[in-house]
Amino acid sequence: MIITNSLGSNYSSADLTLAIKLLFQPWKWLKGKETSLLEQTLLAKFVKFRPAEAGRNNDVSIRLFLKGRQAIYEALKILKIGQGDEVIVQAFTCVAVVQPILDLGAIPIYVDVGPKNLNPSLAQIKKSVSPKTKALILQHTLGYLNRENDQIVNWCRNHKIIVIQDLAHALGAEARWLDDYDGYDDNNLLHHPNTLNTLNHPICPDAIILSFSQDKVIDGVSGGALISSLKSHRQSFQSINQLINWSKINITKSLFYPLLTSTIRQTYNIGLGKIIHFVGKELDLLPSSLDAPDKLTSLPNALAALILNQLSKLEKIIVHRRNIALIYDHVIYKRLKLIIALDIKNGSNLRYPVWVGNRDELEKKLTKHGFYLMDHWYDAPVSPKWVDNSRVKYRLGSCRNAENLSLHILNLPTHINIDQNKAKILAELINKYSKRTNYIIKYHKGLAFLQ
Ligand SMILES: Cc1ncc(COP(=O)(O)O)c(C=O)c1O
Q1: What is the pLDDT of residues 104-123, one digit of tens each?
Q2: pTM for the whole thing?
Q3: Is 283 inside a domain boundary?
């Protein structure tokens, strides 16, 4: 079996069995009890909190979509963001985050990430704010929480900028930000994660989006959610109850996806997997994570069932990911690291990032050992790299740290199909084959960037 970052690596045998069962139960595909159960589970698991805050109601609403990007679109639409409004988003992101902003006629304003950092600082965000700024989409890349989250949320609140927390990568991360950190007992953490409530934090965002699409922490092949406590959201949720249904052919493809990808990974080494992969792509049987319908689409009940099944194992999944990331942290040379142990302990560890000088060459060498890690989050400031920068209003050279990072980042897998032994072997191979880069940190207008 080969190890990849994507290609259905999140599915366990229980997920495969469920997908097969669902294939024979088409009456459950569109509507069913799993959808409302998923809504209730998400609300109960992640939103049980909330001390009363002035001007805010403690009621929280949830709406499920086919894609996380549709949840972003919906959040922006309900906030009445439109023509000419500015929405701050970090460079080193996916086009799926930016597209909803463009679809509404608003303007994405890109803020650079810190030097050798996955996320932006408050100082960088402040420089991107203008009188037209309406909202900030705060992404926690690869599941590593922005270290200045609280300060950013507070500052935005004081400046009437709505914060949409993009937890597409960070489901299951802990809301224990740096300020709260009082020293963890490692053993306790590894075996008994106590607070996995991403939203259980005194500083609540205005809206939260989640993604359950391919290769996310919880992977139901496709899925997204918008959770909001804003009064306007709740009212709009009630009035717009007409989402389109996804076609049965697409649902069939999605239910086949876990089976097909698992077969590909298992038979890749003997050549069969390569053929199935090729044929699957040619016949359009392997949906790309970038494909999405134009119209807002409801989450099919069959995918809600897949998501629920994984969600019930979230704590186990998170502990596994943390343990694998801690092995990388322990073995990998310091000069290659992008994150620290505290990020690992706070984060969901969707993928463990390293910074290497010879990514292409290294990847080729790793394939000889059964590690296929060519899928980088992200390979461009607005990923994937074939995206036309002018279409997404990104000016080349404007976010140099993000551009640098996208050339050097390599993602290491933490999913359930890599065990501790393989992770150690991979970490040692990275140490052996990777080359360092020479760079210096420069300062321009008070902000740091790599050169
Ligand atoms: C940070 C981030 N947010 C949101 C999304 C959108 O998620 P979805 O693919 O479910 O639309 C993505 C896509 O990968 C993402 O990387």
Answers
A1: 999 999 999 999 899 999 99
A2: 0.91
A3: no
